[in-house]
Amino acid sequence: MQTKSNWSPGPGVRILDVTLHDEENWIVSAAAKPVGVCPECGVKSRHRHGWHKRCLQDLPVQGQAVKIQLALIRWQCKHPICPRRTFTDQLSKIALPYAHRTVRMADIVDLVGHRMGGRPAENLMNRLGMPISDDTILRQLKRNAPKPRRDDNIRVVGIDDWSWRQSSHYGTIIIDLERRSVIDILDDRSVESAKAWLQERPSIEVVSRDRCGLYAQGPPGRAHPRPGRWPIASIWFKTFEPRSRSR
């Protein structure tokens, strides 16, 4: 094809050939630049030690899947004082080590998977020419999820129920309302477990809860003897209930 350079996934990659396989998938043969740069000492090398291929899934073209067969070279570093003897082409801007998808493809997986979840994201991406399983989507989301913060300085939390399985098994979700992040997930939906969780964290000052359901029976915000812990739902109820009755 005359526009082979348009198929390149990033800088430093030369496109050798582009073919349509089974009238559904594009196979792109590519190779890295003919000169390697040692990541240890920064010296260029043209001495080849060997090579291997990586198969990367890239963004689709007109609804058809694209696979890049990338030939990577292992180079020899001839610098006399460099501790590294061999190294492979570094393509961190194109694909992470041991990844099966390009960085730009992985970004789409994160975006769609985070918005839609496993099965719906799988169905949509397969329709758009990016075949991927729901297990792979969830595994990537877990791998790229931010590390949980320490809960030593938590001040404002929200407590509500959530479903492990719809209309079958419910648990308790606890959120840091200041950082807008999930702190913990309890196995069951009970006031006792919420109280026990709060008693272990004396730094919490404000608790937002739902006035309906189990949490309204015993305010978790009053579980700890520390003064100043406010259950937001109770304050809202006491403040606005007389006004609503007057109407």
UniProtKB/TrEMBL annotation:
Residues 157-215 form the Transposase IS204/IS1001/IS1096/IS1165 DDE domain. Residues 35-79 form the Transposase IS204/IS1001/IS1096/IS1165 zinc-finger domain. This is Transposase. It comes from Rhizobium miluonense.
